[in-house]
User: Fold this.
Amino acid sequence: MSLKCTGLGILFAALLSYPLGAKELDAGMVLNAANLESHLEDYFDGTLISDLIPEHFQWQIKEQGLRIQLAHAKAHPKDARLEAASAKNRGKLAIDSESELVPGWRAGVPFPNVTPEDKDAASKVMWNLTYGRPRGDSQFFPNAATAYIHGERGFEELNRHRIIRVFLKGLLRHEDAPVLGKGRLFEKSIVYEAEPGDVFGSGAVLVRYDTGEDELLLTYAHEARKVVRWKGGYWMYQLGVTDFVGDDIFIFNAYPSWYVNFKILAKKKVLVVANTTHPFWNPEGKMIGEKLPGIDLENPPYWNPIDIWEPREVFVIEATAPELHPYGSKVLYIDAENWLPYLGEFYSKSGRFWKASILGYRVFQTKEDGGAIVWPTWQIITDFRRNHGTIFITDDKLRFNMAIDPQILNIDSVKDRCANCLLVK
Assistant:
Protein backbone atom coordinates (compact mmCIF):
# COMPACT_ATOMS: atom_id res chain seq x y z
CA MET A 1 0.00 0.00 0.00
CA SER A 2 1.36 3.41 -0.91
CA LEU A 3 2.04 6.12 1.65
CA LYS A 4 -0.48 8.25 -0.21
CA CYS A 5 -3.24 5.66 0.28
CA THR A 6 -2.27 5.17 3.90
CA GLY A 7 -2.46 8.91 4.55
CA LEU A 8 -5.87 9.13 2.90
CA GLY A 9 -7.07 6.21 5.02
CA ILE A 10 -5.98 7.91 8.22
CA LEU A 11 -7.63 11.15 7.17
CA PHE A 12 -10.84 9.32 6.22
CA ALA A 13 -10.91 7.52 9.59
CA ALA A 14 -10.37 10.80 11.42
CA LEU A 15 -13.26 12.41 9.55
CA LEU A 16 -15.54 9.51 10.45
CA SER A 17 -14.60 9.62 14.12
CA TYR A 18 -16.80 12.67 14.76
CA PRO A 19 -20.39 13.12 13.53
CA LEU A 20 -20.90 15.59 10.70
CA GLY A 21 -20.63 19.12 12.08
CA ALA A 22 -19.08 18.10 15.40
CA LYS A 23 -15.72 19.54 16.37
CA GLU A 24 -13.02 19.26 19.01
CA LEU A 25 -13.19 22.20 21.43
CA ASP A 26 -10.06 24.02 22.53
CA ALA A 27 -8.76 24.22 26.08
CA GLY A 28 -9.65 27.59 27.57
CA MET A 29 -13.12 27.68 26.06
CA VAL A 30 -15.87 28.55 28.54
CA LEU A 31 -19.17 26.67 28.40
CA ASN A 32 -22.08 28.78 29.62
CA ALA A 33 -25.83 29.17 29.32
CA ALA A 34 -25.56 30.90 25.95
CA ASN A 35 -23.48 28.26 24.18
CA LEU A 36 -23.83 24.92 25.97
CA GLU A 37 -26.68 23.57 23.86
CA SER A 38 -24.77 24.23 20.64
CA HIS A 39 -21.71 22.33 21.91
CA LEU A 40 -23.29 19.25 23.46
CA GLU A 41 -22.46 17.18 20.36
CA ASP A 42 -18.91 18.53 20.17
CA TYR A 43 -15.91 16.89 21.80
CA PHE A 44 -13.18 17.74 24.25
CA ASP A 45 -10.12 15.52 24.49
CA GLY A 46 -12.01 12.98 22.43
CA THR A 47 -15.15 12.71 24.57
CA LEU A 48 -18.61 14.13 23.88
CA ILE A 49 -19.42 17.25 25.88
CA SER A 50 -22.86 15.78 26.66
CA ASP A 51 -21.13 12.78 28.24
CA LEU A 52 -18.55 14.87 30.11
CA ILE A 53 -21.12 16.97 31.94
CA PRO A 54 -23.74 15.15 34.07
CA GLU A 55 -27.36 16.09 33.41
CA HIS A 56 -27.90 18.08 36.61
CA PHE A 57 -24.69 20.03 36.06
CA GLN A 58 -25.82 20.81 32.51
CA TRP A 59 -28.97 22.18 34.15
CA GLN A 60 -26.86 24.34 36.45
CA ILE A 61 -25.06 25.79 33.45
CA LYS A 62 -28.32 26.53 31.61
CA GLU A 63 -30.38 27.75 34.58
CA GLN A 64 -28.07 28.55 37.50
CA GLY A 65 -25.20 30.52 35.98
CA LEU A 66 -22.49 27.85 36.28
CA ARG A 67 -19.63 28.34 33.81
CA ILE A 68 -17.08 25.66 32.95
CA GLN A 69 -13.70 26.57 31.49
CA LEU A 70 -12.16 23.61 29.72
CA ALA A 71 -8.63 22.42 30.53
CA HIS A 72 -6.62 19.37 29.53
CA ALA A 73 -6.23 16.74 32.23
CA LYS A 74 -3.20 17.15 34.47
CA ALA A 75 -2.06 14.03 36.27
CA HIS A 76 -1.88 14.04 40.04
CA PRO A 77 1.44 12.99 41.58
CA LYS A 78 1.67 9.66 43.36
CA ASP A 79 2.45 9.30 47.06
CA ALA A 80 5.11 6.57 47.14
CA ARG A 81 4.24 5.57 50.71
CA LEU A 82 0.56 5.27 49.88
CA GLU A 83 1.36 3.25 46.77
CA ALA A 84 3.57 0.85 48.76
CA ALA A 85 0.96 0.35 51.49
CA SER A 86 -1.75 -0.23 48.87
CA ALA A 87 0.33 -2.83 47.03
CA LYS A 88 0.47 -4.93 50.21
CA ASN A 89 -3.35 -5.09 50.24
CA ARG A 90 -3.77 -6.38 46.69
CA GLY A 91 -5.85 -9.55 46.79
CA LYS A 92 -5.65 -9.87 50.59
CA LEU A 93 -8.65 -7.93 51.94
CA ALA A 94 -12.39 -8.47 51.60
CA ILE A 95 -15.62 -6.89 52.83
CA ASP A 96 -17.14 -8.98 55.59
CA SER A 97 -20.68 -9.95 54.58
CA GLU A 98 -22.10 -9.65 58.09
CA SER A 99 -20.41 -6.57 59.55
CA GLU A 100 -19.88 -4.90 56.13
CA LEU A 101 -16.45 -3.81 57.42
CA VAL A 102 -12.97 -4.51 56.05
CA PRO A 103 -11.22 -6.69 58.65
CA GLY A 104 -7.45 -6.54 58.63
CA TRP A 105 -7.08 -3.14 56.98
CA ARG A 106 -4.24 -1.10 58.45
CA ALA A 107 -3.06 1.36 55.78
CA GLY A 108 -3.26 2.16 52.07
CA VAL A 109 -6.00 1.60 49.52
CA PRO A 110 -7.78 -1.60 50.61
CA PHE A 111 -8.84 -2.58 47.07
CA PRO A 112 -6.31 -1.22 44.55
CA ASN A 113 -7.94 -2.92 41.55
CA VAL A 114 -11.71 -2.44 41.27
CA THR A 115 -13.53 -3.74 38.22
CA PRO A 116 -17.22 -2.93 37.58
CA GLU A 117 -17.94 -6.66 37.12
CA ASP A 118 -17.11 -7.38 40.78
CA LYS A 119 -20.36 -7.81 42.77
CA ASP A 120 -18.83 -5.77 45.60
CA ALA A 121 -17.29 -3.16 43.29
CA ALA A 122 -19.43 -0.22 44.45
CA SER A 123 -18.76 -0.91 48.13
CA LYS A 124 -15.06 -1.33 47.42
CA VAL A 125 -14.97 2.08 45.75
CA MET A 126 -16.54 3.61 48.87
CA TRP A 127 -14.04 1.90 51.19
CA ASN A 128 -11.23 3.09 48.94
CA LEU A 129 -12.57 6.64 49.30
CA THR A 130 -12.79 6.28 53.08
CA TYR A 131 -9.43 4.61 53.66
CA GLY A 132 -7.30 5.19 50.60
CA ARG A 133 -7.49 8.74 49.25
CA PRO A 134 -4.31 10.77 49.86
CA ARG A 135 -4.77 12.74 53.10
CA GLY A 136 -1.62 12.61 55.22
CA ASP A 137 -1.34 11.48 58.82
CA SER A 138 -2.66 14.81 60.12
CA GLN A 139 -4.15 17.99 58.70
CA PHE A 140 -4.01 21.57 59.94
CA PHE A 141 -6.27 24.23 58.40
CA PRO A 142 -5.05 27.54 59.92
CA ASN A 143 -7.29 29.69 57.71
CA ALA A 144 -10.61 28.05 56.95
CA ALA A 145 -13.91 29.82 56.42
CA THR A 146 -17.56 29.24 55.64
CA ALA A 147 -19.42 31.71 53.43
CA TYR A 148 -23.20 31.93 53.11
CA ILE A 149 -24.76 32.97 49.78
CA HIS A 150 -28.40 33.64 48.89
CA GLY A 151 -29.38 33.11 45.28
CA GLU A 152 -31.16 36.48 45.04
CA ARG A 153 -29.57 38.65 47.74
CA GLY A 154 -25.99 37.45 47.27
CA PHE A 155 -23.34 37.26 49.99
CA GLU A 156 -24.68 37.12 53.56
CA GLU A 157 -21.98 36.25 56.09
CA LEU A 158 -18.58 34.67 56.57
CA ASN A 159 -17.33 32.66 59.57
CA ARG A 160 -13.66 31.80 60.11
CA HIS A 161 -12.33 28.63 61.73
CA ARG A 162 -9.20 26.71 62.57
CA ILE A 163 -9.39 22.95 62.05
CA ILE A 164 -7.07 20.14 63.11
CA ARG A 165 -7.50 16.49 62.12
CA VAL A 166 -5.42 13.58 63.35
CA PHE A 167 -5.77 10.05 62.00
CA LEU A 168 -5.09 7.01 64.17
CA LYS A 169 -5.26 4.38 61.42
CA GLY A 170 -3.80 4.29 57.95
CA LEU A 171 -0.67 6.15 59.07
CA LEU A 172 2.11 6.20 56.50
CA ARG A 173 4.81 8.05 58.39
CA HIS A 174 4.92 5.95 61.54
CA GLU A 175 7.22 3.16 60.45
CA ASP A 176 6.04 -0.30 61.55
CA ALA A 177 3.06 1.29 63.27
CA PRO A 178 0.28 2.31 60.84
CA VAL A 179 -2.20 2.04 63.72
CA LEU A 180 -2.06 4.02 66.97
CA GLY A 181 -3.61 2.26 69.93
CA LYS A 182 -5.82 -0.80 69.60
CA GLY A 183 -7.39 0.14 66.28
CA ARG A 184 -10.79 1.27 67.53
CA LEU A 185 -10.26 4.98 66.76
CA PHE A 186 -10.01 6.20 63.19
CA GLU A 187 -9.88 10.00 63.54
CA LYS A 188 -10.00 12.86 66.04
CA SER A 189 -10.79 16.39 64.89
CA ILE A 190 -11.18 19.77 66.49
CA VAL A 191 -12.86 22.88 65.08
CA TYR A 192 -12.29 26.24 66.72
CA GLU A 193 -14.40 29.28 65.77
CA ALA A 194 -12.28 32.40 65.17
CA GLU A 195 -14.93 34.91 64.03
CA PRO A 196 -17.45 36.57 64.02
CA GLY A 197 -17.66 37.68 67.64
CA ASP A 198 -20.90 35.90 68.54
CA VAL A 199 -19.29 32.48 67.95
CA PHE A 200 -15.69 33.35 68.85
CA GLY A 201 -14.29 30.81 71.28
CA SER A 202 -16.85 28.12 70.49
CA GLY A 203 -15.92 24.84 68.87
CA ALA A 204 -16.31 21.11 68.63
CA VAL A 205 -14.44 17.83 68.95
CA LEU A 206 -15.30 14.87 66.73
CA VAL A 207 -14.21 11.30 67.42
CA ARG A 208 -14.75 8.76 64.64
CA TYR A 209 -14.32 5.04 65.21
CA ASP A 210 -13.23 2.30 62.82
CA THR A 211 -15.71 -0.22 64.16
CA GLY A 212 -18.93 1.00 62.54
CA GLU A 213 -20.23 2.36 65.85
CA ASP A 214 -21.69 5.86 66.08
CA GLU A 215 -19.21 8.71 66.25
CA LEU A 216 -18.94 11.03 69.25
CA LEU A 217 -19.38 14.78 68.92
CA LEU A 218 -18.76 17.29 71.70
CA THR A 219 -19.74 20.92 71.12
CA TYR A 220 -18.87 23.91 73.26
CA ALA A 221 -20.79 27.22 73.21
CA HIS A 222 -18.47 29.89 74.59
CA GLU A 223 -21.11 32.47 75.55
CA ALA A 224 -23.22 29.89 77.38
CA ARG A 225 -20.15 28.05 78.77
CA LYS A 226 -22.00 24.87 77.87
CA VAL A 227 -20.79 21.50 76.57
CA VAL A 228 -23.21 19.24 74.70
CA ARG A 229 -22.44 15.58 74.03
CA TRP A 230 -23.88 14.04 70.84
CA LYS A 231 -23.63 10.28 70.33
CA GLY A 232 -25.09 8.84 67.20
CA GLY A 233 -26.73 10.39 64.16
CA TYR A 234 -24.64 13.58 64.03
CA TRP A 235 -23.62 12.79 60.47
CA MET A 236 -27.27 13.07 59.40
CA TYR A 237 -27.93 16.43 61.14
CA GLN A 238 -27.91 19.82 59.46
CA LEU A 239 -24.78 21.74 60.45
CA GLY A 240 -26.10 24.97 61.97
CA VAL A 241 -27.46 27.38 59.38
CA THR A 242 -25.33 25.92 56.58
CA ASP A 243 -26.62 23.87 53.67
CA PHE A 244 -24.54 20.90 54.82
CA VAL A 245 -25.57 17.89 56.79
CA GLY A 246 -22.63 16.19 58.48
CA ASP A 247 -22.52 13.58 55.73
CA ASP A 248 -21.93 16.27 53.06
CA ILE A 249 -18.47 17.35 54.27
CA PHE A 250 -16.14 16.58 51.36
CA ILE A 251 -19.27 15.23 49.59
CA PHE A 252 -19.35 11.89 51.44
CA ASN A 253 -18.55 11.87 55.16
CA ALA A 254 -20.27 8.72 56.38
CA TYR A 255 -18.82 5.39 57.40
CA PRO A 256 -19.72 3.14 54.41
CA SER A 257 -21.50 0.53 56.54
CA TRP A 258 -24.01 3.18 57.65
CA TYR A 259 -25.48 3.34 54.14
CA VAL A 260 -28.06 0.84 52.90
CA ASN A 261 -26.55 0.10 49.51
CA PHE A 262 -24.08 1.23 46.87
CA LYS A 263 -24.47 0.72 43.12
CA ILE A 264 -22.18 1.54 40.20
CA LEU A 265 -24.09 3.53 37.59
CA ALA A 266 -21.16 4.05 35.23
CA LYS A 267 -17.42 4.32 34.82
CA LYS A 268 -16.75 7.27 32.53
CA LYS A 269 -14.95 10.54 31.99
CA VAL A 270 -16.49 13.63 33.59
CA LEU A 271 -15.39 17.27 33.82
CA VAL A 272 -14.24 18.08 37.36
CA VAL A 273 -12.04 20.58 39.21
CA ALA A 274 -9.01 18.37 39.85
CA ASN A 275 -6.40 21.18 39.82
CA THR A 276 -7.96 24.36 41.14
CA THR A 277 -6.61 27.77 40.20
CA HIS A 278 -5.27 30.13 42.86
CA PRO A 279 -5.77 32.32 44.74
CA PHE A 280 -9.24 31.12 45.67
CA TRP A 281 -9.50 32.41 49.24
CA ASN A 282 -7.66 35.48 50.48
CA PRO A 283 -8.00 35.96 54.27
CA GLU A 284 -6.23 39.33 54.03
CA GLY A 285 -8.74 40.83 51.59
CA LYS A 286 -10.66 43.89 52.78
CA MET A 287 -13.79 43.63 50.64
CA ILE A 288 -15.68 40.37 50.22
CA GLY A 289 -14.80 40.23 46.53
CA GLU A 290 -11.12 40.36 47.52
CA LYS A 291 -11.63 37.65 50.13
CA LEU A 292 -13.41 35.32 47.70
CA PRO A 293 -11.74 35.89 44.31
CA GLY A 294 -12.70 32.40 43.14
CA ILE A 295 -16.45 32.92 43.52
CA ASP A 296 -18.66 34.68 40.97
CA LEU A 297 -20.14 37.21 43.40
CA GLU A 298 -21.12 39.58 40.57
CA ASN A 299 -23.70 37.39 38.85
CA PRO A 300 -26.74 35.54 40.22
CA PRO A 301 -26.96 33.15 41.97
CA TYR A 302 -23.60 34.42 43.35
CA TRP A 303 -22.23 31.05 44.54
CA ASN A 304 -20.67 29.60 41.37
CA PRO A 305 -16.91 28.89 41.23
CA ILE A 306 -14.55 30.51 38.75
CA ASP A 307 -12.16 27.70 37.95
CA ILE A 308 -10.91 25.26 35.32
CA TRP A 309 -12.49 21.85 34.68
CA GLU A 310 -10.70 18.85 33.24
CA PRO A 311 -11.80 15.35 32.20
CA ARG A 312 -11.09 12.60 34.73
CA GLU A 313 -12.24 8.98 34.73
CA VAL A 314 -14.64 8.40 37.60
CA PHE A 315 -16.89 5.78 39.08
CA VAL A 316 -20.46 7.08 39.26
CA ILE A 317 -21.89 5.61 42.46
CA GLU A 318 -25.49 5.68 43.66
CA ALA A 319 -25.53 5.58 47.47
CA THR A 320 -28.85 4.69 49.13
CA ALA A 321 -29.21 6.48 52.46
CA PRO A 322 -30.74 4.98 55.62
CA GLU A 323 -34.30 5.76 56.69
CA LEU A 324 -33.45 8.51 59.17
CA HIS A 325 -31.23 10.37 56.68
CA PRO A 326 -32.77 13.52 55.17
CA TYR A 327 -31.81 12.33 51.67
CA GLY A 328 -33.08 9.32 49.82
CA SER A 329 -29.83 8.88 47.92
CA LYS A 330 -26.65 10.48 46.68
CA VAL A 331 -24.94 10.16 43.31
CA LEU A 332 -21.18 10.50 43.73
CA TYR A 333 -18.46 11.02 41.12
CA ILE A 334 -15.27 9.41 42.48
CA ASP A 335 -11.86 9.34 40.80
CA ALA A 336 -11.16 5.83 39.49
CA GLU A 337 -7.44 6.19 40.15
CA ASN A 338 -6.98 8.02 43.45
CA TRP A 339 -10.50 7.75 44.95
CA LEU A 340 -11.15 11.48 45.35
CA PRO A 341 -14.81 12.57 45.31
CA TYR A 342 -15.35 15.47 42.90
CA LEU A 343 -19.09 15.98 42.43
CA GLY A 344 -22.21 15.06 44.34
CA GLU A 345 -25.93 15.09 43.60
CA PHE A 346 -28.27 14.67 46.56
CA TYR A 347 -31.86 13.50 46.16
CA SER A 348 -34.96 13.63 48.36
CA LYS A 349 -36.83 10.56 49.57
CA SER A 350 -39.17 10.95 46.59
CA GLY A 351 -36.21 10.92 44.20
CA ARG A 352 -36.30 14.64 43.38
CA PHE A 353 -32.99 16.43 42.78
CA TRP A 354 -32.35 18.61 45.83
CA LYS A 355 -28.71 19.65 46.25
CA ALA A 356 -25.41 19.61 44.38
CA SER A 357 -21.85 19.85 45.61
CA ILE A 358 -18.50 20.53 43.91
CA LEU A 359 -14.99 20.07 45.30
CA GLY A 360 -11.89 21.84 43.98
CA TYR A 361 -8.53 20.12 44.57
CA ARG A 362 -4.96 21.31 44.83
CA VAL A 363 -1.64 19.44 45.02
CA PHE A 364 0.31 20.11 48.24
CA GLN A 365 3.97 19.16 48.31
CA THR A 366 5.09 17.54 51.57
CA LYS A 367 8.52 18.93 52.37
CA GLU A 368 9.53 16.29 54.89
CA ASP A 369 9.61 13.41 52.39
CA GLY A 370 9.33 14.98 48.95
CA GLY A 371 5.86 13.52 48.47
CA ALA A 372 2.55 15.13 47.60
CA ILE A 373 -1.01 15.16 48.91
CA VAL A 374 -4.05 16.08 46.85
CA TRP A 375 -6.70 17.78 48.95
CA PRO A 376 -9.62 20.17 48.33
CA THR A 377 -9.29 23.86 49.14
CA TRP A 378 -12.95 24.62 48.49
CA GLN A 379 -16.36 22.99 48.50
CA ILE A 380 -19.63 24.48 47.33
CA ILE A 381 -22.96 22.94 48.31
CA THR A 382 -26.17 24.36 46.90
CA ASP A 383 -29.68 23.76 48.21
CA PHE A 384 -31.96 24.50 45.27
CA ARG A 385 -35.08 24.31 47.41
CA ARG A 386 -33.81 27.14 49.61
CA ASN A 387 -32.08 28.95 46.74
CA HIS A 388 -29.06 29.05 49.01
CA GLY A 389 -25.43 28.02 48.91
CA THR A 390 -22.69 27.42 51.47
CA ILE A 391 -19.01 27.57 50.57
CA PHE A 392 -16.27 25.97 52.68
CA ILE A 393 -12.86 27.35 51.76
CA THR A 394 -9.27 27.38 52.89
CA ASP A 395 -6.20 29.20 51.65
CA ASP A 396 -3.09 27.36 50.45
CA LYS A 397 -1.44 27.25 53.89
CA LEU A 398 -2.79 23.80 54.76
CA ARG A 399 -0.18 21.70 56.51
CA PHE A 400 0.01 17.93 56.61
CA ASN A 401 1.85 15.33 58.70
CA MET A 402 2.50 17.58 61.67
CA ALA A 403 3.38 15.90 64.98
CA ILE A 404 0.09 16.37 66.82
CA ASP A 405 -0.82 14.38 69.92
CA PRO A 406 -4.41 13.12 69.47
CA GLN A 407 -4.88 13.21 73.25
CA ILE A 408 -4.70 17.01 73.12
CA LEU A 409 -7.71 17.23 70.81
CA ASN A 410 -10.36 17.44 73.51
CA ILE A 411 -13.02 19.82 74.75
CA ASP A 412 -10.63 21.47 77.21
CA SER A 413 -8.48 22.49 74.26
CA VAL A 414 -11.54 24.11 72.67
CA LYS A 415 -12.17 26.07 75.85
CA ASP A 416 -8.50 27.10 75.84
CA ARG A 417 -8.87 28.32 72.24
CA CYS A 418 -6.61 25.51 71.10
CA ALA A 419 -3.55 27.28 72.47
CA ASN A 420 -1.63 24.02 72.93
CA CYS A 421 -3.04 21.86 70.15
CA LEU A 422 0.05 21.98 67.96
CA LEU A 423 3.28 20.46 69.19
CA VAL A 424 5.27 22.07 66.38
CA LYS A 425 5.12 25.55 64.95
Notes: Confidence is low (pLDDT under 50) at residues 1-8, 10-16. The longest strand covers residues 154-167.
